[in-house]
Amino acid sequence: MSGAQESTTHPAQRIQYAFTEEQEQFRAALRRFLDDKSPPSEVRRLMETEPGYDPAVWRQMSQELALPAIHLPHQYGGSGFGMVELGIVMEELGRALLCAPYFSTAVMAANAILNAGSEQQKAALLPDIASGEHLATLAVAELGGDWDPHAIQLRATPAGDGFLLDGVKSYVLDGHVSDLLIVAARTAEAADGLGLFVLPADTRGLTRRLLKSMDATRKIARIDFKGAQAQLLGSVGAGANALARTLDQAAIALANEMVGGAQKLLDSAVNYAKMRVQFGRPIGSFQAIKHKLADMLLDVELARSTAYYAAQAAAVEDPEWPALACMAKAAASEAYLRTAIDCIQIHGGIGFTWDNDTHLWFKRAKSSEVFLGMPDYHRELLMQRWRV
Amino acid sequence: MSELSEAEVRDEVRTWLKANWDPNLPLLEWRNKLADSGWGMPHWPREWYGRGLPPGLVRVVEEEFAAVGAVGVLRGGIGRLAAATLLEHGTEFQKRKFLRRIITAEDTWCQLFSEPGSGSDLAGATTRADFDGTNWIINGQKVWTTSAHHAKYGTLLARTDWDAPKHEGLSYFIIDLKQPGVEVKPLRQMNGHASFNQVFFTDAKVPPEYLVSRVGNGWQVAVTTLAHERRFADGLAAPTRRGPRTGRIYDEERAELATVMEPYKWYPQRAGRVDLVIERARETGANQDPRVRQEIAKLMTLAKAAEWTSRRARAAQRRGRPQGPEGSLGKLAASHVARSAARVHTLITGTAAMLTGEDSPRNGVIAEILVSVPAVSIAGGTDEIQRNIIAERVLELPKEPRFDTGPFRNVRRN
Lengths: 388, 414
Known about the structure:
The structure holds 2 protein chains of 2 kinds.
Chain A: H1 3-8, H2 21-37, H3 40-47, H4 55-63, H5 83-96, H6 102-116, H7 119-130, E1 136-139, E2 155-159, E3 162-173, E4 180-186, E5 194-200, E6 206-211, E7 220-232, H8 239-275, E8 277-278, E9 281-282, H9 287-315, H10 321-347, H11 358-370, H12 375-385
Parallel strand pairs in A: 1-4
Antiparallel strand pairs in A: 2-3, 3-7, 4-5, 5-7, 6-7, 8-9
Helix pairs in contact in A: 2-5, 5-8, 5-9, 6-7, 6-8, 8-9, 8-10, 8-11, 9-10, 10-11, 10-12
Chain B: H1 6-20, H2 27-37, H3 58-68, H4 78-89, H5 92-103, E1 109-112, E2 128-131, E3 136-146, E4 153-159, E5 170-176, E6 182-187, E7 196-206, E8 211-212, H6 218-234, H7 248-261, H8 267-270, H9 277-284, H10 290-318, H11 326-349, H12 365-372, H13 383-394
Parallel strand pairs in B: 1-4
Antiparallel strand pairs in B: 2-3, 3-7, 4-5, 5-8, 6-7
Helix pairs in contact in B: 1-3, 4-5, 4-6, 9-11, 10-11, 11-13
């Protein structure tokens, strides 16, 4: 498509409702890799470790598949794809429940740097993230667990050629293993009151503590800052917009991850219903079970549509996309949790045991429901963005 | 015959329209030209009023018609379904007698499948057809028959063998409704409209040459009709109309459409009128209520998701990929959307939801939504049947045990 044509079409008209052959092939290759590297036995092994991931698998993901680089521009060592391809990766990771610091590093931190950083900062920070050399994360929520940027209290005060951070961040994904921290902080210097700051995790004046997370496949940390030296990402006054953009992108990525997980649970419930016999027939032949499974399929497909559409809209910079990010996050998290609950129900007693794998995805559904904000928070944000 | 390219077809139809299209022609004369040229039904075979185009090129013809504002063959209407069925299963005699007058819309049709005793279970029909040596004699009752009051013909599913298993004892007929043994009564719905009819047969006659396919093959033929019905329902979007549209032919077409579409005038309300929700919330001030805002957001999400899901299904089909589960989900999704919309309209409207007609908000439209939505999850296959289809065909779950095997005579029924 020529540039001239592009300028006359509305971005929404460029939205694709089907993946290209290349995208399908990429997904298939990724799925093979994950089937091999992240079977439930590996998920169970890694979730019990403190780092929570396998460095060897992370190296392969980074160096062979270039996953952390997928959506980053070429000039920063990226592959130059966008939100749609990132969505595919997230969906597959969610399906496999891969234990790895991908969402924190590639999605939250890398996008924060892309959205807020100066040219020089992007060139300095992103190549090591693209190559998988550095793990990074974004710290937004604090002890209250509020995802509304207005609730941010951690203070940044100017000192020398940088800033000093004081306060507490919590619910920081992979905060205990990250090399680099991006921190959303309040500062009197900026008109919008917010800035994104970057600092190495071994900076003096910060302490990190791994929290016990119900979803052990997703590690979260609390980080205390007492005069920790940090640099502002980008220029003063652009923090709030960059943070909002980053959180919206994260919501879309998470929505796609949730769809992958929900589909996995649905498959598992369908397979079990075909196999499990009670009253002399497979339970899947009872309408009570059939209808529940049909409803689950519809639920997952509708959520999938919102997640895919939001990723497409973000990829073409349709002005609607931030509203659609809220929509996708709310829809996917509710569908994921409902699917998890119904999957346990269809499994019956065995579904409530530790040995059955369903609870692993159930717990991811629960943590994803609240991470980045509950469904009602995102629905209210959707209404505001639509100016209702 | 070599396949025509898109450009060749476009060129050909454009040239033909240039030579023939005239908005001042009488509608019937124009439709006869469509039948003679094949441009009315371009995907039909050449020997039967079509041009044998692959279905993918029909769009090209439609675009060229739309570009000059040319009128096409009547959209919607049961005649199209009957024609598609006859093309596949009809005899030479039947095709010659009926197809052309369907294209010209000189005959309107109705579909006589559902009965009071067999709704979801269409194959349980008990309307009987008995051969008396000269004619098939029809006795029984059909219901939910759109357009029966003005239709000339109907496609009829009737039982011809009570000792055969349920699906094998049915035959498919064409019946002339303008005869003494046929009585048509309107069926009034809970929303006050009467869009459908009950049709009673008392020794009505069907000549043997009106039997479609062979005796006992009626279910197979009906399945063809139903498949076309689903396809039409999916592609019912009206083509974009351009130009001033003045001229005799447009007046005639408008009158025709008014008659054909009359039964469907409440259908937008049946679907829930999601388009009115935000306006209504603003005009009532309900948009300030956080509880209502949550419900609106849920509804809009559901409606958008349903739309995108059907777009995904179509896109996958266009790419020649096997149709995913998205296609069969549309109907169930539409039920959810409509019900949620009725709930949200009630939430916004409050006590005024007690009112109807001109006393109700929006001159009765809101009330009509509330009393029309219950039809969505029933018409064209109930939600429960859709769930069975999704579960068995998409998820490949085992079928329910059956209690309707063996001679139909012995099967329990209403």
